[in-house]
């Protein structure tokens, strides 16, 4: 895939887009973004998803992660997003507000890419193949190093839903251990992909 | 407290009420109900809550626990309760539907008692003193025997909110370990009393 996919899905050529992203986030996070892009493309090949969309979504998923709380909260109000999100902090905001910013600033309008960025930290009770690929690529990209990552990488060679299940369960356990806030959508993802609940409100 | 509190809060005298409850649940659960009643009264004395309401709420909290799924689901539909509850099973139903049954069959109309029964398994993000007392009494009554119950009992001698926190965290961890469904209200209780989130949707 060359320059054409950038022009197709964004308002920029490859070098311009990379420069814009690089200026929005730290070097470490930029490196992570490139790694998620690569991993997402690998997973898209493996599980037969649109490679181009996986590539773009992976690259831009954390575009908004280093914006100020003030900017994020303004975006939430200005776009009439669910205000209960405000209590949950940037870990939750940067997906939802990120989708708005990559549309506005990077010219990305593809609905599937925007959706995958929106739910990349929480998952949802109704994840598309692309949603799952970005969610999982963010978890297992080669720079990640946590107990269990090698198990997740092994599962990702065979069954994407099993990694989603492993990832959401681990995420919830870690949040509980840290007595951290749990966003309702994160729990919806757990209920769907771990506990098998099919009738959910969201 | 003698017979008068039963006549005051229910449609029955003490012996009649006990007989009705005894006929609705197993001997083991009846014994548990009497123990929750005693423990709730002790906690109400300790934390300055209405003793009579604690006594009645403790006694009747599991009144609906052994009804059939069919009856529970019918009650949910007939009373226009949130239908998403249906996916979560009797552990969740018997509080919400229980409040409806104790009103209809036992003549209990006190709003605080009904509320405490409604939320006794999930808690809520806005628990009254009586809600907390029933929630905790159900967890620590003398027949309970699980790792951590002695810690919960010690906390209950001093600080009710600390037991609520301990209980909801342990409940969520156990549900996760078992890959069991987590009802959204259970997570709201966690977010409020463990993670300190104040703005919640419910």
What do you see in this structure?
The structure is a homodimer of 202-residue chains. By secondary structure, the first copy, chain A, is an all-alpha fold. In chain A, helix 3 (27-47) runs antiparallel to helix 4, helix 4 (51-60) crosses helix 8 and helix 7 crosses helix 8 (129-140). Chain A has eleven helices and no strands. Chain A starts with a helix and ends in a 9-residue tail after the last helix. In chain A, 65% of the residues lie in helices and 0% in strands. The mean pLDDT of chain A is 95. The first copy, chain A, has a single domain, classed as Orthogonal Bundle (Hypothetical protein af1432), CATH 1.10.3210.10. Chain A has helices spanning 4-9, 14-24, 27-47, 51-60, 69-78, 90-106, 111-118, 129-140, 149-156, 160-177, 184-193. Chain A binds chain B through residues 82-84, 86-88, 169, 172-173, 176, 179-182, 184, 187, 190-191, 194-201, and chain B through 82-84, 86-88, 169, 172-173, 176, 179-182, 184, 187, 190-191, 194-201.
What is the compact description of this entry?
By secondary structure, the first copy, chain A, is mainly α. The first copy, chain A, has helices at 4-9, 14-24, 27-47, 51-60, 69-78, 90-106, 111-118, 129-140, 149-156, 160-177, 184-193.
What oligomeric state best describes the polypeptide chains here?
Answer: homodimer
Average pLDDT score of chain A: 95
Profile the largest sheet of chain A.
Answer: none
Strand residues, percent of chain A: under 5%
Q: Which protein chains are joined by the largest interface, and how many residues does each one contribute?
A: A-B, 26 and 26 residues
Query: What name does the CATH topology of chain A carry?
Result: Hypothetical protein af1432
Radius of gyration of chain A: 16 Å
How many strands appear in the DSSP assignment of chain A? 0
Which parts of chain A are unreliable, with pLDDT below 50 for 5 consecutive residues or more? none
Based on secondary structure, the structural category of chain A is: mainly alpha
Helix content of chain A: 55-70%
Query: How many domains of chain A?
Result: 1
- The ordered H/E elements of chain A are HHHHHHHHHHH
Instruction: Examine the secondary-structure arrangement and name the CATH architecture of chain A.
Output: Orthogonal Bundle
SS field, number of helical segments of chain A: 11
Q: What is the H level of CATH, i.e. the homologous superfamily of chain A?
A: Hypothetical protein af1432
Shape of chain A: globular
């Amino acid at each position: 895939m060359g320059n054409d996919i950038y022009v197709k899905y964004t308002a920029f050529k490859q070098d311009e887009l990379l420069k814009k992203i690089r200026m929005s986030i730290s070097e470490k996070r930029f490196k992570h973004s490139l790694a998620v892009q690569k991993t997402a493309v690998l997973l898209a090949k493996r599980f037969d998803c649109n490679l181009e969309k996986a590539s773009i979504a992976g690259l831009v998923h954390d575009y908004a992660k280093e914006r100020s709380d003030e900017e994020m909260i303004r975006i939430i109000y200005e776009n009439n997003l669910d205000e209960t999100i405000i209590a949950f902090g940037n870990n939750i905001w940067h997906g939802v507000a990120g989708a708005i910013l990559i549309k506005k600033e990077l010219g990305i309008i593809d609905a599937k890419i925007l959706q995958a960025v929106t739910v990349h930290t929480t998952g949802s009770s109704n994840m598309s193949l692309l949603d799952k690929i970005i969610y999982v690529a963010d978890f297992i990209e080669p720079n990640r190093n946590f107990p269990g990552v090698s198990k997740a990488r092994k599962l990702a060679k065979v069954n994407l839903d099993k990694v989603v299940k492993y990832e959401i369960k681990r995420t919830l356990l870690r949040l509980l251990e840290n007595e951290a806030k749990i966003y309702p959508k994160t729990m919806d993802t757990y209920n769907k992909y771990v506990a098998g609940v099919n009738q959910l409100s969201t």
